[in-house]
Amino acid sequence: MDRLFDILAFPTNLLLAALWVAICCMTWKRFRFLASPAAVISSILLFMGSCIWIGVSGNVAFTGSVFFIIVMLYLMTVLLCVLLRGWKTASGKLRYHFILHHAGLLIALGSAFWGSPDNRQMRMLLHEGETSSAAVHMNGKQSTLKDEISLISIECKRYENGTPMQYTATISIDEQTHSIQVNHPLSRGIGEDIYLVGTGDDYCILEIVNEPWKYFALVGIIMMIAGAVILFIKGPRS
Question: Could you give all domains of the chain from N- to C-terminal order, each with its CATH number?
Fold first, then answer.
């Protein structure tokens, strides 16, 4: 599965997404069922059922199963077909709130689906005064970062009002010094964040998270909010 994800990473996933959109645009009129209420309800129920199962069982790995991938593809295909069917009225007038709602949701879901092969989550252990570029993926696979990271110092602030101790790690990346704390990640580049997840007297554990498609999800959410605002301003139909 890991090898398959590596193959489907950029630019393969982008090409597959473009091919999927093209196929849907060319064939949706032949398969009108995909834009029907029955397809909408069934796709939503399958997706909600899968999410509930993940939440109840705690089996996050289920998101990489063939069944969940089919459910996601089915849901996005139905959503795209509904968008293609109803983006304008019979008179040719654009339905702006409809477009923003459905296209925003499609972009948010699509960025999570097509962008998942590009996501990386790694951890590295650094001792004070040590420089390293070696990291370990969550599946145990070894990896080498493009930059070397050095741990300069660990500072611990103690509070007397019952507040837990606050650790601050001072690290150096590419000859630039940064301070990082728990729940206060360091953002670097497009979609890359470094978290402080563990500390000691002379060491720290960093988590490097790469999610290059997350900004597309943000655009989709903003579009849905804009669609809701337009719908609210227009008010109910007379």
Answer: 2-118+213-234 (no CATH), 120-210 (2.60.98)
